[in-house]
Design brief:
Blueprint (H helix, E strand, L loop, with lengths): L1 H30 L4 H18 L7 H20 L9 H20 L5 H10 L7 H20 L1 H9 L1 H6 L4 H23 L1 H16 L5 H26 L3 H32 L15
Helix pairs in contact: 1-6, 1-7, 1-9, 1-10, 1-11, 2-3, 2-4, 2-9, 2-10, 3-9, 6-9, 9-10, 10-11, 10-12, 11-12
Length: about 290
C-alpha cells in the first residue's frame, strides 16, 4: 500500500499528460511538424535556465511565466512561417529553433555550478517526485486548454487536415496557428517542469504514431493513443521504482518498446491478411460429392 500511495501521484500526472498530448499529437502529425513539441519544450527549458541564472527559483511561478514568455515567442515564429506557399519549410525553422535553444541553454548552464544536474532534470524531468498540488494545478490548466480546443475543434482540425480549404473559407490560418501554438506553449511549459523535454516529446508523438498503425479516423486514433499512453505510463512508473531507474527515461524506453511491439503485431497481421487474399478461392468442384463406384 505504501508503494501504491507513492506511485499514485506520478501515475495520475502521467495520465494527465497522456490526455492532452495524445490529442495535440494528432494535430502535430497531420501538420507534419513532428518536432514542434520538442522545439517548444527546449525553448521553455531555455526560459527556465535563464530565469535560474537570474537568481529565480526554477520551480517558482516567476520562473514559469518566464518560461511561458519564451514559448510564446516560439509560437509567434512558428505561426508566421505557416503556409503551403512558404519558401522555407516550417519543419526546417522548427529544427533550427530547437538547435539554437539547446545550444543557448548549454551556454547558459556553463556559467552555473549545477549545470549537470539541471541538464539532466531538463531532459528527463523527475515525475516521480511530483506533488498532488502540481497534479491538481496541471489538471486544471489542461482542462481549460482542452475546453478551448473542444470549442474551436472544427477550425483547428480543418487547418490541420486541409489548410487550403480553411483558407478558401476565409479562416486566418496564421491567427489560428498562433492560438494553437500558444495553447501548446501552455501545455509544454507545464509538462517540461514535471516530466522533462524527452518524455514530453514521447507523450506527444509516440501514442499518435502507434494509433496511426491501426486507425485512420480521429476518434479511434485518440482512443488507441490514450489507451497506449495509460498502459505505458503505469508500466514505466512501476518499472522505474522496481529496478531503481530514472522514471522519465524508463517511460521513454517503455514507449519505444511498446511501439516496436505494436508495429510487429501490425506487420504480422498484414502478412496474414495478404496470405488470405492471395489464397485461391474454393471452386464448385471442391464441394462436389465424390463419384460412387
Amino acid at each position: 500500500m505504501d508503494v501504491f500511495a507513492f506511485l499514485l501521484a506520478p501515475f495520475v500526472a502521467s495520465l494527465i499528460l497522456t490526455g492532452i498530448h495524445a490529442y495535440l499529437g494528432v494535430h502535430v502529425v497531420e501538420r507534419g511538424v513532428i518536432f514542434v513539441d520538442l522545439s517548444l519544450a527546449q525553448i521553455a527549458a531555455l526560459g527556465t535556465t535563464i530565469a535560474a541564472l537570474s537568481g529565480i527559483e526554477p520551480h517558482s511561478e516567476t520562473s514559469y511565466f518566464f518560461s511561458l514568455a519564451f514559448t510564446f515567442i516560439g509560437a509567434a515564429i512558428f505561426s508566421m512561417i505557416r503556409g503551403h506557399q512558404a519558401r522555407i519549410p516550417q519543419e526546417a525553422v522548427i529544427g533550427i529553433c530547437y538547435a539554437v535553444a539547446s545550444a543557448a541553454a548549454i551556454l547558459a548552464m556553463s556559467k552555473s555550478v549545477q549545470e549537470t544536474e539541471h541538464l539532466k532534470e531538463m531532459l528527463v524531468g523527475n515525475i516521480l517526485t511530483v506533488s498532488w498540488f502540481e497534479v491538481k494545478k496541471t489538471a486544471a490548466l489542461y482542462g481549460a486548454i482542452g475546453l478551448f480546443h473542444y470549442i474551436f475543434r472544427r477550425k483547428f482540425l480543418l487547418i490541420s487536415l486541409d489548410p487550403e480549404a480553411a483558407e478558401a473559407r476565409g479562416i486566418s490560418t496564421r491567427f489560428w496557428d498562433f492560438l494553437f501554438y500558444a495553447s501548446f506553449g501552455f501545455v509544454v511549459t507545464s509538462s517540461v517542469a514535471i516530466a522533462g523535454v524527452l518524455l514530453v516529446f514521447c507523450y506527444l508523438i509516440v501514442p499518435s504514431v502507434g494509433a496511426m498503425l491501426y486507425a485512420d479516423k480521429i476518434g479511434p486514433r485518440l482512443a488507441i493513443g490514450w489507451t497506449m499512453g495509460t498502459l505505458v505510463s503505469a508500466l514505466g512508473v512501476y518499472l522505474s521504482l522496481k529496478i531503481d531507474l530514472p522514471t522519465g527515461a524508463t517511460i521513454v524506453c517503455t514507449f519505444a518498446l511498446v511501439l516496436i511491439a505494436m508495429a510487429l503485431i501490425k506487420l504480422l497481421l498484414g502478412h496474414r491478411m495478404a496470405a488470405r487474399a492471395m489464397a485461391p478461392a474454393p471452386s464448385a468442384h471442391d464441394y462436389s460429392p465424390a463419384p460412387r463406384h
